[in-house]
Amino acid sequence: MNPWFAGIPLALIITILLAGGALWLLRRRRGAGIKVMLGVNGLIMAGALALLAAAFAAAPASASGGAAGTAVSMATDGSDSSSAALIGAAIAVAGSSIGAAIAVAYTGSAALAAMSERPEIFGRAMVVVGLAEGIAIYGLIISIILIGQA
């Protein structure tokens, strides 16, 4: 079994205990609780960066054997470019979706505020909200193009 998988429950228990202690300190002494919460966040960030570094440094798995080893090596040819395209597609979709969510939040609240004063501008307000939602569609189109070229 992978040692990373064995360490996950232990890391979760330690994180829950540290967060609970930090919340208790926040109620008792605010300054000390904030310092502990920042420490817990730093530990979680360090663990995530260590996991990311281990994932990037890991070698691809290989099968031992004659025909199976050849089949695996033939199947992995060119996988670096396709994995980069998939990561790029994921970043395009995630970034555009987050941007669209922020844009819809601001334009939607402004549109509701404007419609509460003048209900006849409903159509124009929804057009602006729809344009903000179009940002996510652009990211989806870019991801389809990237996956198609992989």
UniProtKB/TrEMBL annotation:
Subcellular location: Membrane
Domain of life of the source: Bacteria
UniProt domain V-ATPase proteolipid subunit C-like: residue ranges: 87-146
Matches recorded under InterPro entries: ATP_synth_F0_csu, ATPase_proteolipid_c-like_dom, F/V-ATP_Csub_sf
Topology of the protein relative to the lipid bilayer: Multi-pass membrane protein
Pfam families: ATP-synt_C
Transmembrane spans: 6-26, 38-63, 83-113, 125-147
Keywords: Membrane, Transmembrane, Transmembrane helix
Main subcellular localisation: membrane
Family (UniProt): Belongs to the ATPase C chain family.
Official protein name in the record: ATP synthase F(0) sector subunit c
Organism: Arthrobacter koreensis
